[in-house]
Structures are given as C-alpha cells and as structure tokens.
Amino acid sequence: MANVEERVQLIFDELKVLDSIFCAKDEFLVNDGRLDADIESSCRNLVEGKVENLQLTVKIPSENTEMRLGVSLSKDYPSSLPGISVLSTQLTRKKTSEIQELLKGHAKESLAQFSEPIVLKLVEWLQEKISEICLETEIQVSRKRPVNDDKLYICVLKFDHMRSRKKYLKTITNWVTELNLNGCILFWEKIIIEIIEGFKSDISKYLKRLRTCTVDVDSAGRACKERMMDVLCEVENTSQNRIASGFQTLDCTSLKEFEQIFQNHRLFDIYQTYVKDAIIK
C-alpha cells in the first residue's frame, strides 16, 4: 500500500481530473458540493481516518436516460474497492441493479489489474454501457417520427480540433448512419467543417450526442466530450437537391477545392452566408 502522502496525492489528482472533465453545473459533486480549495485537506482527512468517507456523484451524459454514479471512497482507497451505486429515474430497478452489479465486477477487475484510482475508469465504462442502452431506446423511438417532421434541414458545424481523428470520425460516422443522416466532413489546413442533412429531430439527436458523449481525447489521452464545436447554421433545405447518401471524409489541399465542395452540393449560398467569415479571418 502506498504511504499517506502518495495516497492523498493519488486521490486529489483523480478528483481534479474528474472535475475538469465534468465541469458543468452539478455534473461532478464531492459530498454534494463542487470541488473547492479545501479538497486536498478533505483527501488527507480521509486517508488519515479523520472522516469516514468521501461521497462522489457523477452525472453520466446521455440523450434519453439520466443516470448518476455514486462512489463512496473509504480511508483505504485506492487499495480497497469503493462503494458503488447507480441511480436512474428512467430505467427499471431491475435494469439499474444489473448495471450496478456489472460495474462492481468491472471495478474489481480494474483494481486487481491497476492498483490505482479507478473512478474515472468506472465512469468511462458506464458511459459506454449507457450508450448501448440509449441506442436500443432510440431505435424504438425513431420508428415514431413526429407528424410534422417531414422537412429536410442542412446543418453546418465547425470544429476546433480533433486530437484522435480516427476515433472521432469512426464515432460520428456511426451516429450519422444510425440517425439516417447524410453529409460530409471537410479538412483544409486547420479548418474542420461538417455538413449534415436530415430531418430536424434527427439532427437534434446528433448535436446532442456530440455535446454529451465522449468523442475525442484530451492532451493527456483521456476520453473527453466535444466542447469547442460551433453550429454555423441549421436551415431548411428548400431546394430539390439532396446531399449524396452516406457520409464522406474529404481532405482539401486548397481554399478553392474547399469551396468547390459547397458548389458541388449546390450549397454555395450557405457557404457565402454562414461559413466564409468563420474560416477566413
């Protein structure tokens, strides 16, 4: 077992990482509050046995299911298994219990393998699991399209960067397919622009996934959510022209080639109105 100072630092570092990833209001709580300046003292009090535990709560991002992971750290953590609970008002008690037991099994395996703080690993595992649950729900719901959702829209997005381009593109390509969208993503120098076409409700689901699910990695290689995407426009496609079926990745070697893609899709008016000023400073 690591000494007191090492364990204090391990727990403190893990809490800081979680707080940096889940930084929106009430996404990550320690003893029902946000991380504060006294957190290192709280970690020390835990390790020295002056407090019984630290209670962590993490809101797991999802489109259709709100879920919270509760973790109770004891004075022997990370050498001992933390207390784990899963709470969701939208899943059945049976389903929640199943997920909780699977998560505990994953926690035991992780602790045996790594002998280091495992809360972030549990969060990442649960994010993957909840995506499967939500996908099953979404497939059932998508068969009941709103009556008025019969108009096609064009949405243009601008991304700041993609650290793990392969992982990012694989994820969004799968989403585009699942949600029956069409489009392409353009790379030119440091510019990344995505064009998608589909029904408004499906585009809304896609945008929500981008904002709530992990799609990339941060500078330390940890899974992270998209926080630097801009929606340049979301407008009704009033023409009879459709974007070709599927999803393409296009690498451009010049601005002319970049603009030509909008011309080819008969979207040059959208380029002139919404995109040009955003990429040419």
- Rg computed from alpha carbons, rounded to a whole number of angstroms: 22 Å
Task: Label the overall shape.
Answer: elongated
Count the helices. How many? Answer: 8
Q: Report the order of strands and helices.
A: HEHEEEHHEHEEHEEEEHH
Low-pLDDT parts are 137-145
End-to-end span in angstroms?
55 Å
Q: What percentage of residues falls in helices of 4 or more residues? A: 40-55%
Largest sheet: 5 strands, mixed
- Integer count of domains: 2
Q: What fraction of residues sit in β-strands?
A: 15-25%
CATH homologous superfamily placement of the largest domain:
Ubiquitin Conjugating Enzyme
Indicate the CATH class of the largest domain. Alpha Beta
Please provide a written account of the structure.
The protein is α+β, with helices and mostly antiparallel strands and 281 residues long. It has two domains: 4-140, Ubiquitin Conjugating Enzyme, CATH 3.10.110.10; 152-278, Alpha-Beta Plaits (2-Layer Sandwich), CATH 3.30.70. Helices cover 43% and strands 24% of the residues. It has helices at 4-21, 39-47, 93-114, 119-142, 165-178, 200-212, 255-264, 268-279; strands at 28-30, 54-60, 67-73, 83-87, 152-159, 182-188, 191-199, 214-217, 223-225, 229-236, 247-252. The strands form three sheets. It has a five-stranded mixed β-sheet with strand order 10-5-7-6-11, with helices on both faces. Strands 1-2-3-4 form a four-stranded antiparallel β-sheet. It has a two-stranded antiparallel ribbon with strand order 8-9. Helix 1 (4-21) crosses helix 2 and helix 3 (93-114) runs antiparallel to helix 4. Its main location: cytoplasm. Keywords: Cytoplasm, Nucleus. It holds the Pfam family RWD. It is found in: Cytoplasm; Nucleus.
